[in-house]
Amino acid sequence: MHHLVEPITNRTIPEAIDLLREAHDFLVGSALAAIAELGQAPIHRWGIQAKRSNVRLGSNRPQLVAKANERFAELLNIVATLERLVDALQWFGDKPRFSDLSVLECHPSTSHSKGGNNLVLCDASGTARVRCEVSDVVSMSAHQNNKERLDLAVLGLAGAPPNDGVSRFLVTSSEFAHALAHPRRAWHRMPYRYVSHLADLDHATMLLEIVPAPLPPA
Q: Is the confidence at residue 22, as pLDDT, over 90?
């Protein structure tokens, strides 16, 4: 079964950004056309029809778009993920400590390979140096759907971040990031901390870098 947007492997950061933007802009245009068609739906059934609406994507699609149609609700989720991925890749590309890395794998349709992550950057030898889990959680609660716990587990964190030369990030909405990094959480119970990075000028996407908790005073 095809993903809506196929994975990217072994690309430079600028190449990956270009491919993701091409897919994003095509999907947004297709979604807007579908919304215009929903203007014809009976007003007393608009919500029911909109929820079940299929967006036609046709045969003349960008390289990454693998389906000829997709449910509107699913397409909306994927478009939001694409925007988070582009924001993250631009941020990594602008930072000297990450700018020489390449995209080992990138999974815009949220699933990923066994042992992989939504976004993995590697050095010239192919060794993973950055691992990211990417989401568009619309919540100001840190406990929303156990999302934090699940993402940390996929990043290989059963406790404190390992000293393995890999930087780990959660890439998410600003509201969810603020909830996760809130100073009033019970941080004394947690073996990690978050360093917040703003990925874009309009404050839409945040990167939370996961670092070890500081050692207690001697």
A: yes
As a whole number of angstroms, the distance between CA 17 and CA 38 comes to: 31
> Please, what's the b/e burial string for 143-162 (b: 16 or more CB within 10 A of its CB; e: otherwise)?
eeeebbeebbeebebeeebe
Residue 217 lies in a domain: no
CB 4 within 8 A of CB 67: yes
**Domain count across the chain:** 1
CA atoms of 150 and 200, how far apart (whole Å): 25
Per the domain annotation, does 18 fall within a domain? no
Helix segments in 45-173, DSSP class H: 46-51, 72-94, 147-154
Q: Is the pLDDT of residue 144 over 70?
A: no
Which pLDDT tens digit goes with each residue over 188-210?
999 999 999 999 878 789 999 99
- Other beta carbons within 10 angstroms of residue 54's beta carbon come to 13
Main-chain phi, psi angles of 117, to 5 degrees: -145, 170
pTM of the model: 0.92
Which residues form the domain of 207? 8-13+78-212
Instruction: Look up tokens 């930072």; give the residue.
Output: 95
- Would you say residue 204 lies in a domain? yes
55 lies in some domain: no
The whole-angstrom distance between residue 111's C-alpha and the CA centroid of its chain comes to 11
Which residues make Cβ contacts (< 8 Å) with residue 195, sequence separation at least 6? 208, 209, 211
75: number of Cβ within 10 Å: 23
Percent of the chain at pLDDT exceeding 90: 69
The confidence score (pLDDT) of residue 79 equals 95
User: Over the chain, what is the mean pLDDT?
Assistant: 91
